[in-house]
Queue: 3 jobs
Job 1
Amino acid sequence: MHIDLTHRVAVVTGGANGIGRATARRLAESGAHVAIWDRVPEIGEATAVALASEGLDVHFIETDVTRRASVDAAVALTITRFGGIDILINNAGITRDSQLVKIKDGSVTGGMTDDEFDAVVAVNLKGVYTCTQAVVPELLKRGGGRIVNASSVVALHGNFGQTNYVATKAGVIGMTQVWARELGKRNITVNAIAPGFIATEMTARMPASALEAMQTHTPAGRLGSPEDVANAYCFLSSDFAAFINGAVLTVDGGLVIGT
């Protein structure tokens, strides 16, 4: 299957590293012009320069998805650079893990803070809402487009110590299905991916024992790679996925059936 995104303009939020960087590369390799929206200019610029050195048309725009003004400015700069937007990959996400309450000797000794909860909601849930609302008018001008949102397998089954993260990723599935209904008649498809455990900078900070347990519970026998997820993003952005709308595609090596 050869995916051809020639002349399409794609936005990848959180595209400076990890899954986002792999996705920016995969889309650009398929012919798309790619705007990386990310918050850290040093990393974003370095990523764009590195990908451009491979002959790929990738441009970095400093963007904070939690701020409406920043997102609106990023839309305008993307249009100035590339002439429009056809694809939105809502990939940006953070974690601030903590138990709801920490209990010792039968008493509560701590737990997730409001700041930890609010920070994750601001990026993972409201950021998806803000970026989508800002980009949809541009998709309409182009006669349609593709929106793909980042959820997670934990949205379907929960995960210890991730009340905030799981809530946002479950919310993303709900928004995806609402928008698929609202925008489908406008030739805009809206889908989500639900990755399992992926080998990124985020998981690299986890204890080796935890990573080993993840791999053991994955029938494929390995952690996923950023490229595994990037391929799913690229497929759902393509004409091959024209009749897929409101779907949640798990990219987990069989983790869900292996647990």
Job 2
Amino acid sequence: MRNVPDLAALQLLVDVGTHGSIGAAGRANGITQQSASERLRALEAQTGLTLLRRAAGGSTLTESGVLVVGWAARLIDLAREIDESIVTLREGRAHQLSVAASMTVAEHLLPLWLVRLRQQHDTVVSLTATNSEHVRTAVADGSVDIGFVEDGADPGGLASLVVARDELGLYAAPHDPWARQGSPLTPHELVSRPLTWREQGSGTRRVVDDALAGLGLTAAVPAVELTTTSGIRSVVGAGSPPAFMSRRTVRSDVEAGRLVEVSTTGLDLSRDLTALWVGSGRPPAGPVRDLLAIATRPQPS
């Protein structure tokens, strides 16, 4: 990504748009006007775009500059979320709340929840990302305060609360024969081919296995078996056989054309994303209840 500038330079450009001058943007970032000007010229050289109109009375964004600032603002916000999430992981020894979560929840939902928990309640969290089976075990034996699973299995005596709905799809590389399939694949066609799978114990694997078992079918022995969603996405995009994945985890890959959703029929691949804890049906007061309040709050569309 040689055209993408560093975050500090992008923040400086955003601040020029906000404050109306390079000098003011420099002061907001703790650098001199000369340093700010040099950094912004380097930014323009790197992108190959004229981003600012410079005048004695101040500086304004060009049309290209307005677009870049819009993109940069989203990137900077995401970087702040990641930074906060890393802090929650690093400070695990002094944690007030320990969480275990299946991979889909850990990668795509929990980062924002934990940022908000820290901002609103100053709660430090230690997070373990693992498969749903291991999450259930960790909650039951007291290793963690709360867990999040995605396999829809019986909670086994644990208190539970559905926090979100999710749906799986079958995804293939653009050049895969199934990506060019004219009609939806039937369950019998699905089990005729070795696919790329998550490991046994993962929520994704269990949902598909249970759906097939309800039809008296069993998936073929996996061609590839991996322990992370990101690993599955990478190998399928590189040409590994298709894989079932959460739609929320592959949205950007589909939009970019790296993956293609393969139409299927005859399988219910929806699932609940569920919180688990030890105790009664009412979450315990404190960080567990605070986190669940954030997780179940309607999100802006």
Job 3
Amino acid sequence: MFPPRFDYERPDSLDAALDALAEEGAIPLAGGHDLIPLLKARERDPGTVVDLGGLAELRGVERVVTDEGATERLSVGALTTDADLLDADPAGVDGLLDATRAVGDAQIRNRGTVGGNLAAAHPASDIPAATLAGDARLHLVGPDGDRTVPAGEFATGDHETVREGDELLTRISLPLSPTAGSAYSRKTHPSTGYASVGVAARVEVVDGVVTDPRVAAVGLCEAPVRLAAVERELDGADAGAPVAAIADAAERAGERVERSVREDHVVPADQRRRLLPGCAEAAVSSAVARAVGREGVAV
């Protein structure tokens, strides 16, 4: 099907982009892998498509120091392509890199953007799991100024977020720690290429003990969810002999999930529940192994 008629603008500055988005019916275009199919299906009928491709200021990967040098974070520009993030290969965010490698194929990763993936809020997208487990912050700018949203509060449903129509996601930042490890594992649906279920995990290992575990799933519900039962079981586990603890924790992955499990013609809800423990075990096992083996964080 052909998309509806619309005006097209390609601003060359952030201020110009915000002005364009302030017009009624304007919507942003980043990589386009989500928006273009929606236009063709006539599920979006914009007055103007605002192409963000000219905003070089929203690209790049860098380590930033905050709190007077006390902490470090990795900052990823929202228009950084998946391929550019992988080429940068920053240390300390293995879970994010795992999730980015899982996105589509090489052609999609060359065009698709990290921020676009998050803003599209597809229930089975990979990167939102890694940002939620990674305790990321999403930075937005709009007519009323800047604001920061924790990853866990950004996506609210299927293709729904807290981003206002006249706001732009500008960058994503994640904490870096020399004692942390993270990973992502998913079960890919063979016909769609999306995750039937995907799980990201981030843990700290201090004095041989797992602390501050964060485990998040996508594909399971309409928005990314924390797996609270897994986190509870992992907290305080012996990182030197974690196999039994991780397996026990993974078996409880479906407990205390606050949202309803998705049910559609692609993957039944019961199948998603059956896949969840295996993905959780794989992600947590890799995250713990990486935390134990890590000697420091360097970008």
